Amino acid sequence: MQMQTKRVAIITGGASGIGMAITERFVADGIHTIIVGRDAEKLNQAKNKLGNLCYPYEFDLNQLSDIPVLIKKIKEEHGQIDILVNNAGINMKRDFMETSDEAFQQIITTNVNAVFAISREVISYMLPNKKGSVLNISSMAAQYGMPRVIAYSASKSAIDGMTRAMAVELSPMGIRINAIAPGFIETAMTAVALNSDPERKHKAISRTPIGHMGQPLDVAEAALFLSSDAAKFITGVILPVDGGNSIGF
């Protein structure tokens, strides 16, 4: 049996929700997985649960000017970066007219600017090897219009555009860029959003042909595939993992 070479991944927001599911799946596949987040307690819990292949780095991605230092440190400590999963993101449920410039910008900074900055820094280390995979986490909010999430919708639409533009520019140099657009997945974040709004929850499930919400593992399996050599001819794709929600009626 051929020994698999070492693989190193960075997952932002990798200590909770969908990010944690991706981290678990990557570690189970033998990938050295670095998780970046602001919550030291969650990071340490993930480390304790997943063991030696999980490496927590406490960092606030809104500190854009410090991102190059973080990525340089990771590269020096781990020798390589093969995979980046841009999972960290924030949402804000607020009426359009109640959304201030500051609140809108806060979402854009975390969900777009930080994704761009960390991708640029990671890719600078991937280019010499002419190989690497960047996976962005998009949303159904970029697929169709949803009320009360104007900033989030704008940010995830930007992610889809960046994914395509990056793929066209970087794929000739061996760097694949893809995205996953999760549908309604059972996480703590969606529980808060939907359990307090039964009408919205019913609408979400009723237009999902599979008829129920997804599990974080469903997204994690797709993330592992798109980040692996099994997907070596796939780039610029925004893959809905949504039980058919984006095409449901």
TrEMBL record:
Belongs to the short-chain dehydrogenases/reductases (SDR) family. InterPro entries: NAD(P)-bd_dom_sf, Sc_DH/Rdtase_CS, SDR_fam. It comes from the Bacteria. PROSITE patterns: ADH_SHORT. GO terms for molecular function: oxidoreductase activity, acting on the CH-OH group of donors, NAD or NADP as acceptor. Pfam families: adh_short_C2. Keywords: Oxidoreductase. This is SDR family NAD(P)-dependent oxidoreductase. SUPFAM superfamilies: NAD(P)-binding Rossmann-fold domains (SSF51735). It comes from Chitinophaga silvatica.
